[in-house]
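Box 3.1 A note on notation
Throughout this textbook, protein chains are presented in two layers. The first layer is the amino acid sequence; the second is a token string describing backbone geometry. Keep the layers aligned when reading.
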Amino acid sequence: MSKIKAEAKESNTITGGKLATVGPGTGVSHPALLYSGEAPQKGASIKFILDNGVEYEGTVADATASDGNVLVEFKDGITPVKPVRS
């Protein structure tokens, strides 16, 4: 597994993460964020910026950390807050 390094640009803003789909094959799937760093608290509101420049925000439903990698699942999905930068 390649390392995905994320940085906090502002308080609770993560960069360098990748979107993942959790739960495919179960009939219910939802987006999750995979990055290297510290896991946020359940219930925290976080923002993250993908490589394409789109910024999203969501409320943490669950966060699992292992060997410096974090998988964050979101309560009620994620919402784009800033469009792709030109």
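DSSP finds no helices and seven strands in the chain. Confidence is low (pLDDT under 50) at residues 1-10.
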